[in-house]
Write a structure and sequence with these properties.
alpha+beta; DNA polymerase, domain 1; hpI Integrase, Chain A; 3 domains; four-stranded antiparallel sheet; two-stranded antiparallel sheet; 11% strand
């Protein structure tokens, strides 16, 4: 008997002894606490998936006639309706947050949840050690769930709108980045191999780790002057897959400082399909593997602290700021995701962007040490 345990909310698939496929989906809970399940069937797994999809669509279409259902029921309907608008990676993150909300609100009737309940939940989450980002994610998803419920007359008003926001009690911390002296040591002492070239380019272009791991030779100009960001690595179920960049503003062409172009060309010329390709699977490597090599390369250089790969991006921004490059130009190069802010730097012209890259040239112009 074949079984296929799917993600929460998708049900459990299995092939019956008679050859048919069956899906069991939890739909609620009885007053005595026992779970209620819905069973769907299909002659093939493909047919069953189509039947499950059709049933969920019927639930969404018919749910508005039912004014009495629990938070988890509406939250699941909201998620099914919303998930086609988000990437697979974001879906995994949303599902985790949804599980947190269901643990607290799941068995409550939707229209019984008030602003005080939302505040109590967020305070409890913070007492249990929930990070600021976790609190923000939970509040944001709650707002979306109730906003859609309010729009469909399922609740009188959105309780999250009237719930007090949690004050940020964490101390203000600055983004850590390499100093000018550390950058010079890195440029001079990193190995002349794939990891060394990659770290130099991250420092000199502001690329994210997910972006450099998804690079293909075709994304680097023949003279190494420009790197095109057209895709990024997304983690789906623990597996690295090539997908879309972080946001639509992350699609961009990054000018490469002349002193770093040989490193861009070395990566372009040595690669087959991907710049960072697994020898066994012919797919991009896992970010964990890259971070391991990155740490080893940084640790070999005296006088340089170990900072995360993402700190190279912070270093890039801080270097350009120190050199007098305006923030509008910087944000256009790094692919800032804030659409409101993006509108302010749409006027940045390509010559200005290239001039910004040239300002880094002197900072990185050091002889490199051979292996």
């Amino acid at each position: 008997m074949k079984k296929d345990k799917r993600s929460d909310g998708d049900g459990t698939y299995r092939q019956r002894s008679d050859g048919r496929w069956e899906c069991r989906i939890m739909t609620g809970r009885r007053s005595d606490g026992h779970l209620v399940y819905r069973y769907l069937y299909g002659k093939t797994q493909r047919e069953l998936k189509d039947n499950v999809k059709a049933w969920k669509e019927d639930q969404i279409a018919g749910c508005l006639w039912n004014k009495e259902y629990f938070f988890r029921d509406w939250a699941e309907i909201w998620f099914e309706h919303h998930k086609d608008n988000i990437s697979a990676t974001t879906q995994c993150s949303y599902r985790y947050t949804l599980n947190v909300l269901n643990d607290y609100f799941g068995d409550r009737k939707l229209d019984s949840i008030k602003a005080f309940d939302v505040e109590t939940f967020l305070k409890q989450l913070r007492r249990e050690g929930g990070s600021r980002s976790r609190l923000t994610q939970c509040r944001g998803m709650l707002f979306q769930i109730f906003h859609k419920a309010e729009a469909n007359d399922l609740v009188h008003k959105n309780p999250v709108r009237f719930a007090d926001k949690m004050r940020n009690l964490d101390p203000i911390t600055e983004k850590d980045c390499f100093t000018v002296e550390e950058v010079k040591l890195l440029m001079a002492n990193l190995p002349n191999d794939r990891i060394g070239a990659s770290i130099r380019l991250m420092l000199g272009t502001g690329m994210r780790t997910q972006e450099i791991l998804a690079l293909e030779p075709r994304h680097i100009e023949e003279d190494g002057s420009v790197i095109q960001i057209r895709q990024a690595i997304n983690m789906v179920g623990g597996t690295a897959v090539v997908g879309v960049p972080k946001s639509r503003d992350s699609y961009r062409d990054i000018p490469v400082p002349p002193v770093l172009r040989p490193y861009a060309l070395s990566l372009r010329n040595a690669a087959e399909l991907y710049i960072w390709q697994s020898d066994k699977m012919k797919k991009p490597v896992n970010p964990t593997y890259f971070r391991k090599l990155y740490k080893a390369a940084i640790d070999r250089i005296d006088g340089v602290r170990y900072l995360s790969p993402h700190s190279c991006r912070h270093t890039y921004v801080s270097q350009l700021q120190a050199l007098g490059v305006d923030m509008e130009t910087i944000k256009s190069i790094v692919g800032h995701a804030d659409l409101d802010m993006t509108r302010h730097y749409l006027h940045v012209q390509e010559p200005v962007r290239k001039a910004a890259a040239l300002k880094l040239n002197d900072a990185f112009s050091l002889e490199t040490k051979d292996d």
